[in-house]
């Protein structure tokens, strides 16, 4: 079984560390697991692939590498894990393109961003349970647009119809948030704790 983990980086931040550990644990178990990242810092790890090249030609190279690596790795995968993909890694539309492949996709959530209109933690706000309208955390857009509401509706339209999408969370608390989100009401949610190497 070929598995691809998608995350913004391979080592910067908690989600990156957790995603890399998941990938390593799967390889230890004999699975063919690889990572696709935007920023590659573990240069000596052959199963981590970057879609951004370093140097002054980075923008041009990243477009080419993006098309080649993203779709070769993803099209060959039997199972796709999405981790933390904010910060220009995958847009809402690109996530839908992955879902359209029909492969099993497991979104391993490291924060609340995938269940809201943009918040990484909703604090006491529970509007993600309905539609993320009039977000108390985002400043009003100069043109009066409700950005969180718009993003929530776009996500609802692009993700809710795909039965191949499931959510994994590292905690029961986040799992409950996902189950209560209007965005995820049609998807299976599983609590799947983070892993770490006991050695």
Q: Main traits of this protein?
A:
single chain, 199 residues, alpha/beta, 7-stranded parallel β-sheet, 7 strands, 18% strand, globular
Q: Let me know the average pLDDT.
A: 86
* β-strand amount: 15-25%
In whole angstroms, how far apart are the ends?
25 Å
Order of helices and strands: EHEEHEHEHEHE
Multimer state: single chain
Tally the helices: what do you get? Answer: 5
Q: How helical, in percent, are the residues? A: 25-40%
Shape verdict: globular
What gyration radius follows from the Cα positions, in whole Å? Answer: 17 Å
In short:
The protein has 199 residues and is an alpha/beta fold. It has helices at 14-28, 58-76, 92-100, 147-159, 172-180; strands spanning 2-9, 32-39, 48-50, 79-82, 105-108, 165-169, 189-191.
Description:
The chain has a seven-stranded parallel sheet with strand order 3-2-1-4-5-6-7, sandwiched between helices. The chain is 33% helix and 18% strand. It has 199 residues and is of the alpha/beta class. Helix 3 runs parallel beside helix 4. It is built from five helices and seven strands. The two termini are 25 Å apart. Strand 4, helix 3 (92-100) and strand 5 (105-108) form a beta-alpha-beta unit. The model has no long low-confidence stretch (mean pLDDT 86).
Detail the topology: elements first, then pairings.
Elements: E1 2-9, H1 14-28, E2 32-39, E3 48-50, H2 58-76, E4 79-82, H3 92-100, E5 105-108, H4 147-159, E6 165-169, H5 172-180, E7 189-191
Parallel strand pairs: 1-2, 1-4, 2-3, 4-5, 5-6, 6-7
Helix pairs in contact: 3-4
């Amino acid at each position: 079984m070929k598995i691809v983990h998608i995350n913004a980086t391979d080592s910067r931040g908690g989600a990156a560390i957790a995603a890399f550990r998941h990938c390593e644990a799967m390889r230890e178990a004999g699975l063919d697991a690889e990572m696709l990242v935007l920023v590659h810092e573990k240069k000596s790890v052959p199963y981590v692939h970057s879609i951004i090249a370093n140097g002054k030609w980075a923008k041009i190279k990243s477009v080419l590498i993006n098309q080649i690596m993203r779709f070769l790795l993803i099209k060959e995968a039997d199972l796709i894990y999405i981790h933390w993909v904010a910060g220009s890694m995958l847009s809402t539309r690109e996530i839908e393109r992955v879902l359209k492949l029909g492969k099993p996709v497991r979104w391993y959530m490291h924060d609340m961003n995938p269940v809201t209109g943009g918040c990484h933690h909703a604090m006491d706000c529970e509007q993600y349970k309905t539609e993320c309208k009039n977000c108390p955390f985002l400043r009003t857009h100069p043109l009066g647009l409700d950005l969180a509401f718009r993003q929530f509706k776009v996500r609802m339209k692009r993700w809710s119809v795909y039965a191949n999408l499931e959510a994994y969370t590292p905690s029961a608390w986040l799992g409950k948030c996902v189950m209560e989100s209007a965005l995820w009401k049609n998807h299976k949610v599983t609590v799947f704790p983070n892993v770490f190497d006991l050695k």
